[in-house]
TrEMBL record:
Similarity field: Belongs to the LOR family.
Pfam name, any one: LOR
Name of the molecule in the record: (wild Malaysian banana) hypothetical protein
Record-linked InterPro entries: LOR, LOR_sf, Tubby-like_C
PANTHER family named in the record: PROTEIN LURP-ONE-RELATED 6, PTHR31087
């Protein structure tokens, strides 16, 4: 794991690597543990698990866990009348402390038509005044999208895998120093927006 000044944690520096890391994402059928997906390292070990409403029983609620099943992040979509009237949906990722208090880490606002605009992400701890910190470009459905920071640097890139599995498998390469758990949290929201494995 990275220990230099180039580490850019969003959730924790323990999820940042000192070199680029390619992870494999495997979608789970809804009949197995309620769907969601598993994120594996090069040794095919599970490093992250994302659960959707098949497990949680609530639409618009996602859970990001580590490979041992420990909760890292809760992700929820804002609801209510104001949300229904809005042209954009807002998602938020929360850390929960040992006393059960939630702390917002990031928010993601997407257009109701996901193909029309870049999806922008705001960090609660952001130190700059640009209004957003990261954005998603390209097609998540085709696995040809990138996540870039506000200066235009590519932070993570999706791509097809040469493993057997078709659309059920894809890869994401996270650049050195960036928070892999945060990137997987963003993928969880993209998966749900596009009606894939986390959606009931």
């Amino acid at each position: 794991m990275g220990g230099s000044s180039n580490v850019k944690p969003v959730i924790s520096k323990i999820y940042c690597s000192s070199s680029p890391t390619t992870l494999t994402v495997r979608k789970r059928p809804h009949v197995i543990n309620g769907g969601g997906f598993v994120v594996m390292n090069a040794s095919h070990g599970a490093v992250f698990v994302v659960e959707g409403c098949g497990i949680l029983g609530v639409k618009g609620e996602l859970a990001l866990k580590d490979g041992d099943g420990g909760l890292i992040l809760s992700i929820s979509k804002r609801g209510g009348i104001a949300q229904a009237l809005s042209t954009r949906r807002r998602w938020s990722g929360y850390l929960t402390d040992f006393e059960g208090r939630k702390k917002s880490v990031f928010s993601l606002t997407d257009p109701k038509c996901p193909m029309s605009n870049a999806i922008r992400i705001h960090l609660e701890s952001s130190g700059h005044s640009g209004g957003w910190d990261f954005q998603v470009h390209g097609s998540f459905v085709d696995r040809t999208c990138t996540i870039e920071d506000y200066s235009g640097d590519i932070v993570a890139q999706l791509g097809a895998t040469d493993m057997v599995g078709g659309k059920e498998l894809y890869q994401v390469t996270v650049q050195a120093g960036y928070d892999q758990a945060f990137i997987v949290g963003v993928l969880a929201v993209l998966d749900n927006i596009h009606g894939e494995s986390t959606r009931c």
